[in-house]
Write a structure and sequence with these properties.
Blueprint: E1 5-14, E2 17-26, E3 34-40, H1 48-59, E4 63-66, H2 79-91, H3 93-107, E5 113-123, H4 125-135, E6 141-147, E7 165-171, H5 179-191, E8 195-201, E9 214-215, E10 220-221, H6 224-241
Parallel strand pairs: 3-4, 3-5, 5-6, 6-7, 7-8
Antiparallel strand pairs: 1-2, 2-4, 9-10
């Protein structure tokens, strides 16, 4: 069943940087505050895919908040543009953490939000971001879900015990996060005493949730059945944690 929604742009800031998020909220009145689930976009910037996932979360009864890492109007349309947008943030994980924490702070101010019931999901680069928010022990964060995310740790200081529940939904054949990186991530999460899971899907590469991914030669391709399994796993964890 599709729940009627209210949707719109949501402006917030990281210092002087103006960021333009997208908010989807159930229009059905609630007698209590709703959990907020952030959606972190892939390498091209906030797009229709991320906004659709925010609406999907609103259908599940959450406040869906598609955040903006790059800044208002900064979006890519080619692989080269996407790489130029993403690379500085991957190379400066301290700045990325600050930018992501600004989104969490904004989410906690949304009208009708439950500020201590925050979740985050992310795709590709956004999966790395979701995991970084768990590593940062972002205020109110209870669940972090990475879809075909990047696993490399931020290496920006000692890791404190991770409080949020962590779920990585991973294509075993992902060329951007090979099995040794997956094992390294599992070891990292174990050392941080996290409540963590990795679900590795066989015969599945990168970008398996993206219907527009068709580059089998490069290991980037959509798998509808795997995407459906992964979104069900996400729903189960959010229901448990939030």
């Amino acid at each position: 069943m599709t729940i009627p929604q209210r949707t719109g742009l949501f402006t917030y800031h990281d210092g002087s940087a103006e960021l333009e998020g997208f908010l989807a909220a159930p229009s059905v009145p609630s007698t209590k505050p709703r959990p907020v689930v952030l959606v972190v976009h892939a390498w091209g910037g906030q797009d229709d895919f991320a906004r659709a996932k925010a609406s999907m979360l609103a259908d599940l009864g959450y406040l869906g908040f598609a955040i903006d890492v790059y800044g208002k109007g900064r979006r890519g349309s080619t692989q080269e543009e996407n790489s130029k947008l993403m690379t500085p943030w991957v190379q400066d994980r301290a700045a990325l953490r600050t930018r992501l924490l600004a989104a969490v702070a904004a989410a906690r101010t949304i009208e009708g939000a439950a500020p201590e019931q925050i979740g985050v999901i992310g795709f590709c680069f956004g999966g790395l971001c979701a995991l970084d928010l768990a590593r940062a022990n972002a205020p109110g964060l209870r669940a972090a879900v990475a879809f075909h995310g990047l696993f490399m740790p931020p290496n920006i200081g000692a890791q404190q015990p991770i409080k949020a529940k962590v779920l990585a939904l991973h294509g075993y054949d992902d060329p951007m996060a090979k099995p040794d990186a997956m094992v390294g991530f599992a070891d990292e999460m174990t050392a941080a005493h996290a409540d963590w899971q990795v679900v590795a899907y066989g015969a599945t590469g990168h970008a398996f949730t993206n219907p527009h991914a068709h580059d089998h030669a490069s290991g980037l391709f959509y798998r509808e059945i795997i995407a459906n399994r992964a979104f069900k796993a996400m729903q189960d964890l959010l229901a448990e944690a939030l």
